[in-house]
């Protein structure tokens, strides 16, 4: 006779789920077979009678009042307090006119980075009526653009918004779609972005937002007529943007990937046939496809141990092809769509350059070699491709009418970080790989880079709303602008030092490197060691830790190590005797 010990097996699921039940374990069962042992059963019954008699005696000895106090209470001593969230206008933090100004400013450009809204549905009156939290989040970001993060007004709104978020997160049962949207708005403009996105994901799953996407896909694929299409699209749109942010934080900030797309994300394009789809939905769906692709490339490179260069080169080639195909597809889709803003096409080109550069730099990181002087020709070739992609990135954002740079005043923190990083990495690669530009044109290209740095600093300063560094009131913009200016200055000094050495006929990295003047080495060393903490601890952008020992003054050590690796017996000036090397003829 079969007995179930310690659990029940769900036979309907093929034994897949086991529910553990502690009461199913009995001393009267044999531990090996689960078959009842008569002797054990007899002792178990005696023990049970003895235990029951003790319990009855104990209960009889207790007074009725004592027994009453030890009964399990049907009600808890604690209750959840669900307070009504305040309205910024009602409590007097801002006037209605200010709220209208901040709200409209948000929808002038900030919503490009949080594409979860429908302008026809999400009006000020509608949002304010549906969710005080979402209304507060939108107004706070709008105030950030208008007044800056150093203003008293923004700090006041930001303080009260944090209090509201804390109240909502402590009672998730009262959450709604607008709660998730408010968390996403906050995440794009906050250093606590990872925690906010994780919290939004948990709430979204509880609210069934992934199911809304699946239901919408099923309706569109079946050609069904359904009345709640606009509602489903709002929920699906929010879930997809949440997926985009989680993938960005996974690839570019080192977060763990908690959920991912199953199947081909291009199937989501069928939703664009809906009459409720907006132009911004096309931009959102392009981001979904790109970031799913980037996560797959990241996973492919992370699983590999750098042993076979052809294997890594194959991954790089496939990644470049996939990114190019993504860009070509969406460029055609958007060009065939009416009333597409110019900034969307520019952003697509920028994101293509970014995705390509990151894939190439991560491939180099896989090798574990950061000194370019020790890299193989294949690794240096990958870096050269990254350098070309960064030049295209700079040309794209600097091209007139520079709508990308002008819109940076609305941009999320991640975009500011990308913009500064790409320029700094380009400067470093121009120093580490000077021969890749070829001939005498190298100096002209570098001079152009310095000039572009000056224009970029001015444009970013204007986008941040300040005249000069002291006039910038956006702390994020000020931080990345300072990094960009510092990098440009170090690059200019390194070029000047190299130019002076070329004029005197000295060649850095030769046998005379020990006596070469510090005029070139020190500035180049400063640029090599310039790795801002923001790109190490806040973001995980590869590339800035690359260096060259020939520019940092230890090229003589490279020569010794390379000689030893190539089998040279003269290592640190010690020549091994021929007999010890196994040469009997020596």
TrEMBL record:
InterPro entries: prtT. Its main location: nucleus. It is found in: Nucleus. Residues 18-36 have a biased composition (Polar residues). The keyword DNA-binding applies. GO terms for molecular function: DNA-binding transcription factor activity, RNA polymerase II-specific; transcription cis-regulatory region binding. This is C6 zinc finger domain-containing protein. The lineage of its organism: Eukaryota, Fungi, Dikarya, Ascomycota, Pezizomycotina. Keywords: DNA-binding, Nucleus, Transcription, Transcription regulation. GO terms for cellular component: nucleus. It comes from Cordyceps javanica.
């Amino acid at each position: 006779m079969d007995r179930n010990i310690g659990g029940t097996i769900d036979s309907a699921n093929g034994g897949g789920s086991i529910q553990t039940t502690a009461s199913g374990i009995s001393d009267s069962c044999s531990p090996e077979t689960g078959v009842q042992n008569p002797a054990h059963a007899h002792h178990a019954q005696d023990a049970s009678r003895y235990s029951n008699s003790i319990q009855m005696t104990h209960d009889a000895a207790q007074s009725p009042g004592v027994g009453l106090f030890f009964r399990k209470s049907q009600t808890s001593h604690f209750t959840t307090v669900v307070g009504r969230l305040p309205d910024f206008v009602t409590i007097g933090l801002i006037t209605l006119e200010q709220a209208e100004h901040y709200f409209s400013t948000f929808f002038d450009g900030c919503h490009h980075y949080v594409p979860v809204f429908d302008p026809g549905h999400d009006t000020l009156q509608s949002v304010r009526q549906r969710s005080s939290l979402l209304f507060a989040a939108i107004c706070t970001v709008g105030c950030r653009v208008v007044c800056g993060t150093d203003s008293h007004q923004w700090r006041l709104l930001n303080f009260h918004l944090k209090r509201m978020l804390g109240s909502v997160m402590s009672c998730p049962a009262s959450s709604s779609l607008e709660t998730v949207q408010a968390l996403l708005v906050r995440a794009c403009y906050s250093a606590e972005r990872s925690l906010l996105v994780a919290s939004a994901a948990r709430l979204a799953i509880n609210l069934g937002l992934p199911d809304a996407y699946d239901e919408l896909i099923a309706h569109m694929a079946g050609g069904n007529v359904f009345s709640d299409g606009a509602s489903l699209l709002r929920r699906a749109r929010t879930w997809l943007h949440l997926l985009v942010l989680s993938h960005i934080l996974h690839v570019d900030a080192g977060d763990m990937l908690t959920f991912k797309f199953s199947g081909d994300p291009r199937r989501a394009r069928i939703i664009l046939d809906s009459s409720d789809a907006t132009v911004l939905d096309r931009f959102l769906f392009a981001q979904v496809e790109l970031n799913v692709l980037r996560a797959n490339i990241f996973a492919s490179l992370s699983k590999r141990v750098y042993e076979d260069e052809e294997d890594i080169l194959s991954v790089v080639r496939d990644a470049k092809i996939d990114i190019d195909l993504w860009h070509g597809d969406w460029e055609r889709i958007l060009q065939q769509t009416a009333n597409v803003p110019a900034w969307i096409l520019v952003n697509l080109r920028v994101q293509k350059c970014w995705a390509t550069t990151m894939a190439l730099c991560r491939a180099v990181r896989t090798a574990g070699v950061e000194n370019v002087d020790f890299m193989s020709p294949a690794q240096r070739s990958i870096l050269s491709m990254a350098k070309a992609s960064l030049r295209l990135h700079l040309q794209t954002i600097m091209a007139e009418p520079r709508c990308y740079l002008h819109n940076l005043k609305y941009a999320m923190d991640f975009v500011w970080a990308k913009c500064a990083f790409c320029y700094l990495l380009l400067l470093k690669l121009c120093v580490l790989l000077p021969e890749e530009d070829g001939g005498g044109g190298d100096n002209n290209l570098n001079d152009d880079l310095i000039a572009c740095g000056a224009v970029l600093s001015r444009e970013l300063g204007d986008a941040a709303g300040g005249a000069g560094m002291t006039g910038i009131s956006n702390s994020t913009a000020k931080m990345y602008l300072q990094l960009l200016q510092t990098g440009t200055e170090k690059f200019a000094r390194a070029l000047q030092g190299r130019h002076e050495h070329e004029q005197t006929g000295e060649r850095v990295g030769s046998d005379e490197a020990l006596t070469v003047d510090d005029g070139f080495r020190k500035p180049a060393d400063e640029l090599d060691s310039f790795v801002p903490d923001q790109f190490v601890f806040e973001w995980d952008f590869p590339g800035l830790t690359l260096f060259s020992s020939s520019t940092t003054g230890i090229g003589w050590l490279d020569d010794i190590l390379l000689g030893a690796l190539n089998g040279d017996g003269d290592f640190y000036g010690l020549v091994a005797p021929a007999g010890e090397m196994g040469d009997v003829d020596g």
